[in-house]
Amino acid sequence: MQRFFALLILLLWANQSLASMQIDSSVAPNPVFVEERFVLTISVDANADKLELDRDALLRQGLVVGATNVSRNYQIINGDSRRQTTWRTEIYARKAGTYTLPAASVDGVKGKPVTIDVRPIPKQTGPARDLFIDAELSSTTAYLGQQISYSVKLYLGEELRNGSLADPQMADAAIRNIGSDTKTTEIVDGRRYQVIQRNFAVVPEQAGSYEIIGANVKGQLVKQNSRGQLYGLPVNESAPTLTLQVKAAPENYSGHWLPSELVTLHDEWQPQNSQLTVGEPITRTITLSAIGIEDKQLPNLQIQYPATVKVYPDKAINDTYVQEDRLIAQRVESVALIPTQAGELTFPALSVSWWDTAQNRQRTAELPARTFTVIAAEGQVPLAENTRQASPAQVEQDSTWFWPFILMSILWLVTLTAAIYSYLKRSKSTPQAQIQPASAKNLSFAELEKVCTTAQPAAIQQGLQRWCLSQGWRSRRQWLASVSATNAIQIENQLTSLDKAVNQQAETWPAEPLLAAIKSSYMQTVPANETSLPPLYPTA
Which partner for 73 in 60, 84, 117, 487 could form a disulfide, CB atoms 3.0-4.6 Å apart? Predict the structure, then answer.
């Protein structure tokens, strides 16, 4: 009975494995010429034994079938084992046509049929070329500063050794390689070639008619003489010269010239609150993106900020990268903003003009105006709304009190200076017992730790911003740039989790991992008897 159950389980396992087994069938190369060999490849991700291939069906179609070779492969990757069995059969056709190779069967599991295109051998119309090079432009006309794609194809009929491909050349233009080389095969004039394709971005810098000198290939073709000896035949071939017409900016265009397929403006606010507090910083990051140009063509953003905010901008970051063989230019500007007055705070709209190269018209990328409500900080008395300036008549009427007022002001300043001096002297010897209100001063690290013990996401986020300002960092980027890459990743992961908790209005958030990551980044600089972190720029 035990043997019966064991055999039953084995059969069920085998049936399940066969049901999940996938059979892949392919032919290469495709198409082929008459009497040119191609290989039928059948593979399964299993340790299979029996291949059933209907050779009679192949023979009835007039195909010549050679021997079948089988190979097995076994791998262990990250603890997972993988077995693969592959059969390869060499076949050729004596007549041109489209042939359907019947589905093969492996251990009872059937695959899918595949087709092969067999072409007649064309008549040779000219001398055979062992190597040649061709090129084409995505467009023969372009606007000043607009990216044009230049594609070069190298056709190899023989092996090339020590080959080098020089870039195309054009006056008054920036040319750069984009993407990776691709390798395919093509049939040209009855001969099969290996084709290597390389793409370039051409950005013209002056208007006019220009010639693009074709890319050049040098190397040695491997040839065989009458005695069977191999030798190298030097080659030096260039792609044909192409002409590009570069148009200037239209006369009716206004603003910074920016030709592109698409331009976008995006901004991000941290924290993402509609209500701000006097003295507490917020960070605004603006990203300008454009397709088909380089970053040096992007304009500086003309941003007007209200007079009731203090502005601490970071250095703008310009970059150009390649995506799907298109240049993508970006400009990122970050700025720390600190409201100084309670009330309504409106940041004006921002716009960038650009020329749509696809529709040949001027367009505008815009960021709408945004309004915040700014509240007074704890313990701060807002200015009365009905405060008004004294009229000239009142000033003249009260001029008799001018000198007594000046004397009283001087005495008041002397008293205030003495009080401040006394307070500072006491503060050096008496530590603060409580965390000060948000608008009163920046946080020390010890106070930041106390804020983190509340586990309130919004309070922790605001405390981190004030602590960063006390260290001389106006943005998250400056902070992370001051620590090692490992610690920066750990801190960034924690900050992302904190931002998510704030956006979702979570009631609690564990700050211990973040504090541990911050302490770790400064472990070598903090004395053993201190709990606060040293300033970024020490004064002594």
Answer: 84
Phi-psi region of 123 (alpha: psi -120 to 50; beta: other; left: phi over 0): beta
Q: Are 25 and 103 in contact (CB under 8 A)?
A: yes
Q: Within 10 Å of residue 527's Cβ, how many Cβ atoms?
A: 8
Instruction: Read off the pLDDT of each residue in 226-243 and give the average, rounded to a whole number.
Output: 84
Instruction: Find where tokens 């030798």 sit.
Output: 231
* Residue type at 510 in one-letter notation: P
Contact 44, 24 (CB under 8 A): yes
- Report the Cα–Cα distance between both ends of the chain, in Å, rounded: 87
Residue type, 234: P
Please, what is the angle between helix 512-521 and helix 485-503, to 10°? 150
Is 441 buried (19+), middle (13-18) or exposed (0-12) by CB count in 10 A? middle
CA distance 538 to 295: 37
What does the pLDDT read at residue 232?
81
pTM (2 decimals)? 0.52
Place of tokens 């792609």: 239
> pLDDT for 445-475, tens place per residue?
788 888 888 888 888 888 888 888 777 776 7
pLDDT-based confidence at residue 395 (cuts at 50, 70, 90): very low
Q: Residue type at 279?
A: G
Listed in sequence order, the residues at least 6 apart from 226 whose beta carbon sits closer than 8 Å to its beta carbon are: none
C-alpha to C-alpha distances, 491 to 43, 305, 458, 481, nearest whole angstrom:
47, 31, 17, 11
Give the separation between CA 146 and CA 261, rounded to whole angstroms: 9
d(CA 301, CA 287): 10
Count other Cβ atoms within 10 Å, centred on residue 331. Answer: 19
Within 10 Å of residue 481's Cβ, how many Cβ atoms?
10
Residues 6 or more apart whose CB falls under 8 angstroms from that of 217 comprise 131, 133, 154, 163, 164, 165, 166, 235, 236, 237, 238
Cα torsion 429, 434, 436, 438: sign: positive
What burial letters (b/e) apply to 346-377, b meaning 16+ CB within 10 Å?
Answer: ebeebebbbbebeeeebeebebeeeebebbbb
Backbone dihedral angles phi then psi of residue 453, each to the nearest 5 degrees: -65, -20
Between 489 and 246, where is the model more confident?
246
Q: What is the DSSP string of 249-305?
A: PPTT--SS--EES-EEEEEEEES--SEEETT--EEEEEEEEEESS-GGGSPPP----
What pLDDT does 72 receive? 86
Number of H helices, E strands in the chain: 9, 31
* Whole-number Cα distances in Å, 203 to 134, 148, 180, 450: 21, 6, 19, 56
**Residues 392, 396, 399: CA angle, nearest 5 degrees:** 135
Q: Are 199 and 228 in contact (CB under 8 A)?
A: no
d(C-alpha 314, C-alpha 477), whole Å? 9
**Residue 65 corresponds to which amino acid?**
V
Q: Omega into 527 within 30° of 0, i.e. cis?
A: no
